[in-house]
Structures are given as C-alpha cells and as structure tokens.
Amino acid sequence: MTTLIIDGDVIAYNACENRFKRNSFSKEDIVIDSNILADALEGYDNLLYYKDEADFTDEENEKYLNEIFARFKSIITDLTEICFADKVLIAVAGVGNYRKDIFPEYKANRHANPSKHNPFVPIIRRMATESGMAVEAHGMEADDLVRIWAEECRECGEHFVIASIDKDLKMISGLHYLVHHQKFFDATPEYALRFYYEQLLQGDMTDNIQGVPGIGPVKAKTLLADCNSEEEFQATVMQVYYSTVHQWRHALQLTGQLIYLKKHKDDWFDMSKWPVITLEDIVSKPKKSKKIMEPWTLETALAAIDPSNVTTRERWEGALMFLLDLADVLPPEVSAAVDVIAERDKVPNPEKIAYEVICNFVKDFAKTAVVAKKPVLATVAIPQLPVPQTLAAPLVTVTPPMVKSPVVTPPVTTQALPPATKATVTALPVKLPAFNPAWLNKGK
Q1: 0.70 cut: is pTM over it?
Q2: Which CATH code is given to the segment(s) 190-284?
Q3: Are residues 301 and 322 in contact, defined by beta-carbon separation less than 8 angstroms?
C-alpha cells in the first residue's frame, strides 16, 4: 500500500492561474482598486487592475472558481496515478503558525507586492477541506503536517511518497515526487540529516531566517563534510555558532525552531537535548566561519546579482540583503524587482526583466553610499523611474511559484518518471459545492 502525501498549498497556488491580461502596458494604464473583493482581500486591498478591464461579476467569479477547483482535483488525480497511490493525504495551511508567534518577521520579506496574492487560494483550501479532500494544519505549517504523516507511515511500515516543490521537505527521508520537475527523488536518511543541519547553518533567505552570517550552501557543506553521526553534526553546528554569532545560544535555538519540521504534534526543537560542549572543546577544535564584511554599494550589489555573471552564493546573498534592507527607500518598481530576484533564487532567465529595472535605477542614481555592515543611502533624492513596458506585466501578473522554481540538485540518484500506466485507484469523488458569493467575504 502506498500513501501519497501532498503539500496542498502548492497545488492550490498552481491551480489558480492568473486570469488578468498579459499584454504590455505602461504605468498610466494601471489603477488601484480597493473595492473589488475588499472583504476577502483583507490586507491585500491594493491589487492592481487594468483600466480597460471590467470588474468581475458574480457569474464570472463562479465560473473561474469552478475552473480552478476542477483543475485542483485534476492535479491531485494525476499525482495519484503517477505515484501508484492507494491513499491520498493533502495538507493545507490552517489558522495560526507558532513560528510567527516566536518570530513575527518570519516570511516578512515574501510577497511585498499585494498583487502576488490570489484571493481564490484560501477559497480553494476551504473547499478542499469542507469536501473532505484536505486537512488544515492549525498552529503550524502544512509542511509540519506532511512530516507528521510521513513519520506515522514510517512507524506503521507503510510506503509513502511526498509530492511538493518545497525544498524544506528534503529533511524528511523517503521517496519524494518533485512536482515541478516531474521526477522522483529518494532522500536517503544520510542526505536528509545532512540537509537539515546545513539549513541550520545557512538559514533560509526566502523565509527571512538568517542562520550564520556569511554561510551559504557551499560553506555549510564544507563545514559539515567530516560529520557522520547526528552528534557530530550537532557539535559542529554549535561550534560554528559559538565562534561566529553574538548570543549564539539564543540565535541557534531560534533558527532551529523556525527550520525544524515536527515529527509529531508535541515535537519541538530543543537545543538542550544536544550534546554538551565545553570551552575546552571550542579551544581545542575551533571551527570558525569567516565573516563577509565587504562594503556594498549599489554598483557592487548590482554586479553580484547580475544573472549573466557567475558568482558565489555568499556574494549573491550579501548583495540581496543589502538591496532588501533598502526596500523602504527604493522606488516601488525597484523594490518589486529585487523581490522577484530574491524569490527566484538565482534562476537566470526569470531574473532578466527584474534586473533591467534595477540597472535603470542605478544608472540614474547620482550617488551611492559605501557601508560596511548596514547599508545607508546617500542623502539624495531617488528618481521615480517609469516602468519599462517589458517589465510591467510580470510585476503585476507574477508567474505562479511552481514554474521554474529553483531546486538544489541533491547528490543522489534520481528515478525517471514511470511509464504511463492506468492507476488502480479511482479518482477522488468530490462533489463541487455551488458557488456562494459570500465566500469572497471570508478570505482567510
């Protein structure tokens, strides 16, 4: 028996294709409409619309909702057949997340542009939940529920497959199906363990988790290369934090709480359970991480994130952090472009248009300030640049995150997609509820 465990949030976002026009337009062709779906879009009332596009009617909304929910069910059915699954478990976001309770800035750098939010995603979640297809993860993330289910299957001796695009799930050993690449990937226990401790060192920039300053994937792999047991991983991580981070115990505990995925409901990251290291251990076997203190300017940061250049992960992250810290004083279109590059995680092609906007800004900027740690702009007026016609549409209609998402290629064998075969599992019989306009006033 095979249980398919699905990250439903990914499928919901992928099912909700953008229904706005994709033709090029200028900045003057955009208006801000805070009335359309105002109640459902609490916190997202600055959606951008074209002036020449009529407001959507209830009938149009109902048709779109029927289409995307049918697409959601179709994707689930496809995954069920691909993975030869006899049972399907789908996790979606619920109410609350303990990570935001302990660290309010968690994921604060995501989706700065409200137009990236699709108000129908929470409706799809609710429809999937109310129809019995999905389960909401309350007080945690859908990723936590995915791991809890995976560990329950493991304990019962059941075979399982995890379907998602989220790299964080690679800390779960077992068979994964990479939805965006349409291929299987077997995360061995050794690979999953090493991936988890590498994440503790490097953090996760997309979720605003800092980790150890100056450590990216390459350096994290190097520092942990000689570790074979979990105790060795833990001792090395503590030594690196001790030698690099101010208030290292607090920093490591916080990073661990944000990175760690729960194995069961009452499972929590607790550094006090790690091996005790002494001052003698630190002095006799120091593992220091060299901090990057390069003084950044707009020009050097621009060179580091240039999609056509080959650079280290550390320089790329440092340049992005420099630009992200300036988000409040940069023109909106430049901040949005930086956000696109940060989310695309150094995939060259999708970055080119965003990079063009930042280039135009830097060319017109009269002066830049050189800083060692915290970036500070020179006190000059920042010009408000027009939006290039080639850029405007992508900034408003952002490509869904499943398209060309970055993937860290693991040093393990991948299995090609099995030949098309009729699954022995019947499609999930779900009755589609009639559309209720009131749903658009209840967005989660």
Answers
A1: no
A2: 1.10.150
A3: yes
